[in-house]
Amino acid sequence: EVQLVESGGGLVQPGGSLRLSCAASGFTFSTYWMSWVRQAPGKELEWVANMKKDGSEKYYVDSVKGRFTISRDNAKNSLYLQMNSLRAEDTAVYYCARDYGPKLGIDYWGQGTLVTVSS
Amino acid sequence: QSVLTQPPSASGTPGQRVTISCSGSSSNIGSNYVYWYQHLPGTAPKLLIYSNNQRPSGVPDRFSGSKSGTSASLAISGLRSEDEADYYCAAWDDSLSGRVFGGGTKLTVL
Predict the structure, then answer these.
(1) Which residue among A68, A91, B56, B79 is least crowded, i.e. fewest CB within 10 A of its CB?
(2) What's the confidence (pLDDT) of residue B108?
(3) Contact A104/B98, CB-based, under 8 Å?
(4) Are A50 and B99 within 8 A, CB to CB?
(5) A109: closest chain B residue by CA
(6) pLDDT by residue for chain B (110 residues), tens digit each?
(7) Taking a contact as any Cβ pair under 8 Å apart, which residues of chain A between 37 and 96 contact chain B?
(8) Nearest residue in A to B45, CA atom
(9) Cβ neighbours of residue A105 under 8 Å, at least 6 residues apart?
């Protein structure tokens, strides 16, 4: 059974940093692209970033470029999202998701972790 | 405003058939596969349709997807109360080099 478990969310002040983690199990993590997707309160789903299985390709939504960094450790079956210079508009539930890469889509999602940016 | 356009709401009575549309452009739906998700607040989104019209195992055949040009649609037949949820379409966008989602459609079963 595919399982994705996010952690690391919490309350952070504007301008602060936070690192999200996603622990994957039930599939061969190193053979899949992985994504982060977020949902702000009362808003639609918004794709944030994804990363190729070997880390050689990464894509980001424009609003987080230069502030967020996606990374992975295939030996630990883990995906990360380093979030710097956080803004109020980054407040959202962040989902880790298994991805098939550009041209294709996402199949499995985690339960999400809440990030709140507020003073 | 979302790159993919969905109606904000849809409704139907039990047993009815409802359709949710998703409109895009040549850089997303027109040139890439469309995916559909069902989302209940506070839970993990669930994949309903992949590659325009394919159902993952475990998804009832009441759910079906189609695509024509730069638009796609999700049809739900034999509507049930447990179908009440938010539905999202998604596709890769070649111009943005990123994945885009529709604004979501809240389905109400009357």
Answers:
(1) B56
(2) 97
(3) no
(4) yes
(5) B44
(6) 889 999 999 999 999 999 999 999 999 999 999 999 999 988 999 999 999 999 999 999 999 999 999 999 999 999 999 999 999 999 999 999 999 999 999 999 99
(7) 37, 44-47, 50, 59-62, 95
(8) A109
(9) A99, B33, B35, B47, B50, B90, B91, B92, B99
Q: Please report, for residues A62, A85, A87, the alpha-carbon distance to residue A15 in angstroms, rounded to integers and kept in the order given.
A: 18, 4, 6
Q: What's the average model confidence in pLDDT over A85-95?
A: 98
Chain centroid to Cα B64, Å, comes to 10
Contact predicate A93/A6, CB 8 Å? no
Beta-strand runs (E) in A1-119: 3-7, 10-12, 18-25, 33-39, 45-51, 58-60, 68-73, 78-83, 92-99, 106-109, 113-117
Cβ within 8 Å, pair A60-B101? no
Q: A31: which 2 tokens?
A: 């053979």
Residues of B in contact with A111 (CB under 8 A): 43-44
